[in-house]
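Section 4.2 – Deliverable D4.2 (structural model, holo form)

The reporting period included a commitment to supply a predicted holo structure for the target in complex with MGD. Inputs used:
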Amino acid sequence: MAEVRKAACPLNCWDSCGFQVTVENNRVMKVDGDPSHPITKGKICGRGRMLETRTNSPARVLHPLKKVNGNFVQISWEQALDEIAAKLTDIKEKYRTTAVLHSHDYANNGILKNLDQRFFNCYGGVTELYGSLCWGAGIEAQKWDFGNAWSHEPDDIFNSKNIIIWGRNVARTNMHFYEKLLDAKKQGAKLYVIDPLYNATAKIADEYITVKPGMDGLLAAGIIKEMLRLGLEDRVFIEQFTHGFADVVRLVKSISLEKISEMTEVACEVMTRLAQVFADKPTATYMGLGLQRYQNGGNTIRLIDALAAISGNIGIAGGGANYANLQVGQSFAFEELTLPERRQNHRQFSIMKQAEEVLAAYAPAIKMIIVTCGNPLTQVPDTHLVERAFASTPTLVVIDQFMTDTAMLADYVLPTTTAFEEEDLYYSSMYHHYVNYGPKLVSAPGEAQPDLWIWTELAKRLGFGDDFNFSRDEWFQMALKPLAEKGLTLEKLKSQHTMELPVEKIPWHDHKFQTPSGKYEFTAQQKGGQGRLTLAVPNESKWANPELANEYPYQLLTIHPMRSNHSQNYHLFASKPKLKVEIAANIAEERGLQNGDFVKVWNDRGEVKGFISILAGAHPNTINIDEGIWREFGGSVNKLTSSRESDNGFGSTLYDCLVNLDKDIRQ
Ligand SMILES: Nc1nc2c(c(=O)[nH]1)N[C@H]1C(S)=C(S)[C@@H](COP(=O)(O)OP(=O)(O)OC[C@H]3O[C@@H](n4cnc5c(=O)[nH]c(N)nc54)[C@H](O)[C@@H]3O)O[C@H]1N2
Ligand SMILES: Nc1nc2c(c(=O)[nH]1)N[C@H]1C(S)=C(S)[C@@H](COP(=O)(O)OP(=O)(O)OC[C@H]3O[C@@H](n4cnc5c(=O)[nH]c(N)nc54)[C@H](O)[C@@H]3O)O[C@H]1N2
Ligand code: SF4
Ligand SMILES: [Mo]
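Output (structure tokens):
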């Protein structure tokens, strides 16, 4: 008989939805929203619904696989685990444990997914990745400015007079916030959207401001300049609670508004008007992650933060410089789970440059890569280099549910469970502050096993089985330890399915910042010359690199797909996906292109081919190709992107990418 069970979405997403899953005869039949979830209220997106298809797909990897003479053969778990454990022992004895690279991302928001780190720490410490392809530049930027990256609670939007959506594709990536924007508008709030693409959120805006990609920091500087000229700044906040304001004044005086207008491709009047909007408090700023995936990404977020601070919108209801909500994840005791003190060796590679680092590594060279919750062949920049690095490593182990482009390169593929096949707790440090409980609903097909089972079995073979000798409840309790005294217990969470975490609902309302000075820092005190705000532009732009811009006149964005979470859903669509090259109208005109034309998009790093779609309202000279596409559907757009790091070293520059395009007759 069919049964409806509460569960939770595991996907790396702003929304962290509550689910109602229909289960019959040990099979997931349907995934719906849980109407009782306080934020997501019964609505979910297609990616969530498609978790049913993911779980039941005949394409699932069902058994451990080993590549023998170029072909995958099925082997037993016993053999797979024994051989991988023997290799790990051998590497530890002959080289050092850091000859193993753990390449991962965050494809699953489960708390127990962090136990991979416990495994690697107990093994002795491996080469780990630092930084983030996703939001690294902005996180680091907010740490410099505020000391942390925290957001206002979702319903605080109803206190805002004005709402600025700055480079967040809300309707597509953050659907429950979109619902709130519609409600806030009904209650009289004015909505402004700043984005080079006229996306679905821009369509509901009171005013849409199109900007040259990567120039948002300059735009914020222009608005600050106008704010100061008009005397609209919040003097009390600036004088009492900030550090380094004189540097900002000097900076905005060093450039004319007309020059800013020329570079940002935003009219001077718009900046004047926005200065008035920011001063007409409370004005909330909601930044997205796309706008910081540039060489100057950290500086961009810092200038937008500065604008929110100068206008007095920090620490007030209805205000805020909302980017990420790290306080959600900071509520749990991860160190209890990961045991960092057990690590004896340690080496770090930048996540962006992991391929170069693998190829260049010595003392020790990389002998094994273990991939979890990630698909680097599709998602990491400069695909050709990633392929070379991963293919040249003596042993590549990929733990996944499907034969992704990365798995195809592996020496061992270990089949893992989907979220409905194991119990976990889910949260997202992006938006709301609720943690959800996800029970095990069905058994896994074939021999698929949870990641945790794989770590436990390997740990036994490597002599630290005791470190993994805990029940799921015991692991959960470790993670929830700091919350138990605040009333959030495992028992309650299991029975209520979702619980509110004790976080600051209006961050910085007490004006006590977590920076070295305790103030908001326009100039990051302890960062030397790097701590000062600048008027930096993207690396691949006509302002920084005119020759390159001459050869490659168009700016390529590679935003997140509507119907897939990154690379996770393309292979599950009912009809085979086609690679779509979305272009601004001026490009179509210049090149005589029409919808459906087959084109080649290229730069020095590679080329991608696909079908033209003319994008109404897109900023001139802008192209978009959605990310995540598998080789068999046209190939990863990361063949075109650069592995350079952002200004502060922690972020990617995926959208800082110039290309050219032409019609291609060979379809
Ligand atoms: N459907 C769907 N939803 C998702 C995901 C997914 O894969 N699919 N992924 C999830 C994850 S991991 C993340 S990180 C989030 C990301 O959520 P978002 O930040 O909303 O999305 P991105 O695709 O990273 O960023 C794209 C937005 O930034 C704009 N943009 C790009 N460059 C600039 C710029 O220079 N200036 C300005 N002002 N805007 C710019 C784009 O036009 C687009 O509107 O989404 C999450 N939600
Ligand atoms: N060009 C370009 N590239 C981008 C981006 C962009 O905007 N443009 N966005 C970047 C961003 S924001 C992000 S967050 C990254 C995301 O990059 P990834 O996290 O690497 O991408 P995903 O496709 O979400 O997931 C990777 C793999 O994890 C597997 N997986 C899912 N659940 C589990 C599990 O429980 N255990 C294990 N072992 N595996 C699991 C999936 O099957 C999938 O193959 O991509 C980045 N790459
Ligand atoms: S992917 Fe995001 S919006 Fe969609 S169901 Fe999951 S958490 Fe909700
Ligand atoms: Mo992301």
